[in-house]
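note to self: dont lose this again. the chain is below, predicted strucutre after it. 331 aa total, dont forget to put it in the shared folder this time
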Amino acid sequence: MLLTPPDVSSLDDLLGRWELVEYVGEAFVIIGCVGEFFADFTKLRTEEWRHRLGRLSLLLLISALAVELVAIVRTNSLSGKEIALLNGISADARLRAANAESQVAEAKATAESAKVTAKGFESKIAESNARVKTAEARIASADASSNDAVARVAAAELQVAAQRERAAKAEKDLLEVQEKIKPRRITPEQRDQLVMFLSQPPRGKVDIMCVLGDGEGLAFAEEVGQVLKASGWEIGSGGVSQGAFAPSNPVGFGVLVHSSQSPPPRAISLIHAFRSVGLPLGGSEKKELDADAVQIIVGNKPQAHANNGDLSRRLIAASEVAVRNVSYCRK
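---
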């Protein structure tokens, strides 16, 4: 009968504790997701309260995913140690079986020698036979122990595979959360390409506005203004202006003109320039603007995997280039 070494029991106990930590982390992930749902898809209390709830839920989600990832890594490490220990037990069992087989061969040889050289010593023959039976019993026990160890190794390997799959999912969720909270920025390469494109005619005056109190949107709007100034454009009001919107803030990044049927040529130039560097710039109408006015709105950052806002109107240039399904804000 194979006795389980104390090290295996200790590893099993520690592995169970880390799995409990992992389950607790998953529970907090669910709580964070529920908080995100109430913050983004319900009308509970005020918008400020929902915004705070969304941020707290996001922080809780990040922390829970980090704890779950640490627990998964720890359980993988413990499972690997347990597999190594069980492999050692299996190897020891095989060695014992080989030794037992060697003893059986030795006993049989002794019995044969006893029969040939001393037929009269029946007691010795009986003793040798008894030793053979004992050795065979030990072989059977060793085989059973080896089979048990092999089964435990197989089960541990399945558990490690499952843990690796869960670790991969946790890493993917963490990357999605990081992408969701990453601020919008214009890279040096994008800036150089935009300046090269926008330095060509048509150029002119453009107003830039962002949401009052949105630090991320203000920083991005100022980067847009710096690119336009470097390209020789005139920025209205001396720079980026901030404003309050009702009933809700705009979301995304876009251009407003008086009419989508006859937009100023520089509006089309802006859309093509930003889109050419991977920064989708939407377009829509605002009848309150003058016929030649162009206004850039920088709204709140869209949520991860969103479609960049609510508007999806067309802004068609005289060169028959249409901007389809572009959107960025709601007023």
